[in-house]
Structure formats: C-alpha cells, structure tokens
UniProtKB/TrEMBL annotation:
It comes from the Eukaryota. InterPro entries: CysJ-like_FAD-binding, FAD-bd_FR_type, Flavdoxin-like, Flavodoxin/NO_synth, Flavoprot_Pyr_Nucl_cyt_Rdtase, Flavoprotein-like_sf, FNR_nucleotide-bd, NADPH_Cyt_P450_Rdtase_alpha. The chain crosses the membrane at residues 20-41. SUPFAM superfamilies: Ferredoxin reductase-like, C-terminal NADP-linked domain, Flavoproteins, Riboflavin synthase domain-like. Residues 277-518 form the FAD-binding FR-type domain. This is NADPH--hemoprotein reductase. Keywords: Endoplasmic reticulum, FAD, Flavoprotein, FMN, Membrane, NADP, Oxidoreductase, Transmembrane, Transmembrane helix. CDD domains: CYPOR.
Amino acid sequence: LTIMGEASMDPNSTVQQDSLFSMTDVFLISLITGLFTYWFFFRKKKEEVPDLPKMQSVVAPVRDSSFIEKMKKTGRNIVVFYGSQTGTAEEFANRLSKDAHRYGLRGMAADPEEYDLSDLSRLSEIDKSLAVFCMATYGEGDPTDNAQDFYDWLQEADADLSGLRFAVFGLGNKTYEHFNAMGKYVDKRLEELGAQRIFELGLGDDDGNLEEDFITWREQFWPAVCEHLGVEATGEESSIRQYELVVHTDVNMNKVYTGEMGRLKSYENQKPPFDAKNPFLAQVTENRKLNEGGERHLMHLELDISNSKIRYESGDHVAVYPANDSSLVNQIGEILGTDLDTIMSLNNLDEESNKKHPFPCPTSYRTALTYYLDITNPPRTNVLYELAQYATDTGEQERLRRMASSAAEGKALYLSWVVEARRNILAILQDMPSLRPPIDHLCELLPRLQARYYSIASSSKVHPNAIHICAVTVEYETKTGRLNKGVATSWLKNKVPDKNGSNSLVPMYVRKSQFRLPFKPSTPVIMIGPGTGIAPFIGFIQERAWLKQQGKEVGETVLYYGCRREREDYLYREELARFQKEGVLTQLHVAFSRDQAEKVYVQHLLKKNKENIWKLVNEGMAHIYVCGDARNMARDVQNAFYEIVSEFGNMSQSQAMDYVKKLMTKGRYSLDVWS
C-alpha cells in the first residue's frame, strides 16, 4: 500500500511543485508590473498637472464680462446701465441707447449684473464715450437685485474714474422715505471717484408722472451730450426695429414656450432652486373671502410649497407671476385680425446683444400676450410714437405723435387722454379705429408683464410647507366708462383649490426682506398695519405664539389695525381674538374709519395711547413695524411718532425727527409699504 501510494503520488507531486512555482512567478511578475504601471501613470498625471492652466475655460467668462471689449468690437460709444426691479429702468435704458443713432453714435443697454463694472475706468479708451445710469430705488432706499453687486463695488472702490463721462437718471417714488436714494448715491459716488458729470441728475417720481419726468430730462440731456462730445443731431427720429419676426410653420411643439419664465418645460419638470427665472408651481390649497360685506373682495390664499425646498421667514415677500385676462387677449387678436396661435420668434437684429429675444421664444402670440407682455397699464410715449406710423387716419396719427412729443401741449394731452383715463393698449386700439399695427411690432414694443409681490401672511415655524397671502382685488371704472381690473388679484381670485387641475397652480418664488422680528423674543414689538397691511403681522404673531409654546420669554406684542367697518372688512378677526385670549397678542387696537361720523385711523389710536407707546419705545426698546399704504398712512403714522417723541422726550420737532430717523438706522423702525 505504501508503494502504491508513493507510486501514485510521485508524478502528481512533481506537477504540483512545478505548477506552484510557475504561479508564484506569475503572481510576482504581475504584482511588479502592476505596481510599475500604477507608478508610471500616477507619475504621468503629476507631470501633466502644470499643463492644466493652459485650458482657457476658467478665464473666458472674465473676457466676456468686459463691456469695454464688447463696445469696441461692435463700435459702440454709449453704454446705458440699468438697475431695474420691475422693468421700467431697463425700458428707459433701451430708449436712451436707441436715441444715440440720431447723433451719429451707437448705444447699448447693459445689465450691470452681467459685466465687470471696474472696467468703467477704461471707457475713455473709446472715442466720444459716455456711461449713463438708469437706476431705480427698491424698498427702503435699496438697490435693485441686479444692481446689488454694482452698489457693493461702488462702496468699496478706490478706482480712478477721471476719464469717465457720465449722467444718471433715477427712478423713485416720493411717498417713500428714501426717495431716489440709489440714483443720488450713484451720481454722488461717481463724482467722488473723479468721473465727470455731463448732465444733472434726473429724479423721476412714480407717484407723479414718471414718464413725463423722463421725457423732460431726456430732451435736455441730449443737447448736453452734443456739447460735450462735439456731435449734432443727424435728422428726424426714425422708427428702428430691434427685432425681426420669424414665423414657424413647421415646428416641434416640444420646443415652444407656453408661459415658462426661463428654462423650456420648467413647469413640467420642476427643479430647485426656485427664483425669478425659475418659479415654483405652487398648488392653491385654500382661497377664502375674508370680508363679510362691502363692494371689495378681500381674500386669503394658501400656497402649498411641499417638496420645493423653498425656505422663508416671517416678513419675506412672495412673488407671483400672473396671467392676463383671456378676453382682453382675444379682443386684441380680433382687432388686429391675427391668428393668435401662430408660432413665432422675435430675434434681435443685433447679434452681439445678450438679449436674444424680448421674451421667451419661440412661442405663440396668445402666450406672449397672456404671460409675457403688459397689456393692462397705459403705454408709455415711445410706444405711441412707434405705433403712430400705422394709423391711416392723419388726425389719429398726428394725435399719437403729439402725445409722444416733448411739447407742453403734447405732455398735457398724454396725461389726460392716456394716464388719467387709464387707457391700456386695447382701449387705444378701440378708440383709434385706423390704428392697426402689425401684432409682432406691438409685441416688440409692449413692456414685460412683471411679478407681483405680497407680504407673506404666515410663519414658517408654524407653516413650513405653506405660504399664505392676504390680498384685495383691484377693480375700478375709468373716465371712459371701462371697467379695469388688477391683473394679479383678479387672476388669484379665480384660483380655486383643485388637486388635479392647472387652474389651482401659481408660479411663485420668495424674495427675502429686511422686515424682521427682533433677534430676542423678549423685545416688545409695536405693529401698525391697516387693511391688507396686517399680512406680515399675522406671520409675526404666529411666530411669537410658537416661541411662547417653546418656553421662550416673549415680550409685549402690540397691534394697531384699521379697516372701514367692523362688520364689513375686519380681517382675521377670529385669529386675532384667539391670539389675544392666549396672551400672545398683549394689546389689540382697532380703528374703524367709517363706523362713526368722524373718521378714525390708526394714527389717531397711536396718539390716544401715546404714553404707553413712549414707554415701550423708550424703556422697553420696542421695535416698530409699519405695513400698508405709503402715500398717506405711513407718513401720518410717522408724524404721530414725531409728536409722541417730542412730547414725552421733551424734544423739539427736529430733534424728534432725528430720534425716529435713528430708530430706522438701528433697525428699530421698519417699513413694508407700497403706493
């Protein structure tokens, strides 16, 4: 057995040893080869690293952001920057840049957000150059969103702008505390940096007649340009189309915009983050009437923001993109004899322009007039001037040209016939039977339909997945007997909760605000908000109630609210009563303006409780919040505070005014107002 075992084992033993040896060799060789290969490629990568900077993709945007290079490349002399929140400043900038051709110059309108403004110091490299700034002021003296970086740069810059010629036109509203703050700052700061002002600062007032202010400034601005640059007018104004029409007869409907603000199909395929160019489609889960009587319709809406990743704080604003009334759109189509479902594009004739289309294209005329264009506001004079050429009746043509002129008679006619009569483009077409412009030129001329902002009427601590809106529908009869309706409020009124229907969807995004509760919950707050001005305070009170439930010490929470009649439009009456019962709302003062012979407003109640107000402000270091009408209420409330401070602080009127201004500077007197 042993021999057999040996005999049977020996051959296999030899094979196994040979095999084992060769496998070891292979393993070692493979290991060495692998290590060498890994080292070789690793070493090669390290050697290639220094070559990476040769790639130009990182550097390219810097070149693209130079407006100087662009101006040189396209033969421009004049650049008109705009700081615009609602589109008006951008519109004025476009008009000024178009004007330039009448003087043998070439202009371009520019968004400061898209360019490197430190290049202003190089503008003198271009012959007969000039920078114009159309700057709107937003909120309480703030720059518009697109001018924030420019504002920051101006504050920090120590650039030498001695070769720069400039002019500024500001867009503001006199009912606001910081009238035209941005225009004034840009004008002053550019001069401080050594730039040469070639024409005086223009101050447009939207509470008066902004269009007239602009025209008056503009007609004196161009002669000053001629004098400084040594140029002169080349002749009559002429209508120059900025866009060319392309009609699409055979187009893939998946490539056609149907109301999206930015990315094609963004409403079908929603992707965060959500903002002005990428709004979120929120479902309306509640839409109820708040008032019990009266002619007006006051409403409370709740928008579902679940799964949107949208975050908001009490005091923020919600922006909604409305749609124009389909009957107005249809009437424009009928008057102009147009098939509104024609798919078209308006393409910029200036191929170098960053703005390829006036609104998302390709799209239909119906979509453009419904979602993209403002058809309800009275058109500006430049629109009337451009349209005049299409009036076949000489009397109508002359009337349009006169209203668009800078003559006193023309301005007066425009003010009475268009502005005060609140004639929109449809009314003008109806009242001028011979005026039948091509619909594509009309679409080119009309301004963009803007988002509407509302103070959020909820707290994210209590409602993290919902945003509440409080609004009143706008509806009035014009001097011509027409019934005009507010675009957004009429549209929101018809948004009914329906989980499966598109009629309940609202394109929206959140805009951050400086209107904030104090950092310490124990700090007292005095809130003044008549009418729909109560909206942010519902959110504030909800948040204070939540903080109290968390065991935090919550300070005095005082509300001064006002409405017309107690039994008619006392908004959120039940909610306020509940908050008062729970001890969160420590004081509730309501002014019913029309329930008695003499009208009573919130400022009257403030004066009535002046001693308590002074104690809260002076000893309690209370924060004051005012929300609502800027034209009368906010000013009257501020005057009431001047009186209270003067009387109980033993101060003169000017000292009391300084005291209130300091409260504002310290963030203890905040405004969220509109006109």
